[in-house]
Amino acid sequence: MHHQPRGPLSIPDEVIQFETGRPSAAWHLLLDASGARTFSHAQLIGHLQDIYGLDTRWASTLAVRYEAACGIEREVTVPADLVAAMIFKATARQRFEQLARAEQCSLLVWLDQAADAQERNARISDLLDRLQRGDPI
C-alpha cells in the first residue's frame, strides 16, 4: 500500500498559493531577496510572521519548504514525546534518522499541526508504525 507523503513538503503548490497568496517560487524569491539563507529556522519563521503576517502554521510550512528547496540542512531537534515513543522501536528510530533533514523537519511540522494531544499521539503512533514496516513516508 502506498502512503502519500505528509507534512509541508507534500502540500500542493496550489494550496500554498491559495492559503498564503503566493506560490512557493514567489516566496523563495522574496526570501532570497531578504537574505533568508543566512537566517536560522526560527528567524525565518519570525520573518515570515512579522513581515508578511503569516500565522505560525504557514510560516513554519514555508520555512521547511524553503530550506528544502535551497538544500539548507539544519540540525533537527526531535521532540521528547517522539524520542520516548521511539525508545523501544529501534527500526523506526533508525529509519527516521536516515531520512533527509528536510523530510524529518516536514514530519515534525506535521506532528506539530495536530489539533490536540490525542491527535498528536495518534500521528506519532501512525508514523512509527509506518517506519517499523518500512512503508514510504
Overview features:
137 residues, mainly alpha, 2 domains, 8 helices, 66% helix, 0% strand, elongated
Describe this structure in words.
The structure is a single chain. The model has no long low-confidence stretch (mean pLDDT 89). The chain is 66% helix and 0% strand. It has helices at 13-20, 24-33, 41-52, 56-70, 80-86, 90-98, 101-112, 117-133. It has two domains: 8-70, no CATH class; 80-133, no CATH class. The protein has 137 residues and is mainly α. The longest helix is centred in the last third of the chain and has 17 residues, at 117-133. The chain contains eight helices and no strands.
Walk me through the topology.
Layout: H1 13-20, H2 24-33, H3 41-52, H4 56-70, H5 80-86, H6 90-98, H7 101-112, H8 117-133
State the gist of this model.
With 137 residues, this protein is mostly helical. The protein contains 8 helices and no strands.
Can you give the mean pLDDT? 89
Classify the oligomer. single chain
> How do the helices and strands follow one another from N- to C-terminus?
HHHHHHHH
| Contiguous runs where pLDDT drops below 50 for at least 5 residues | none
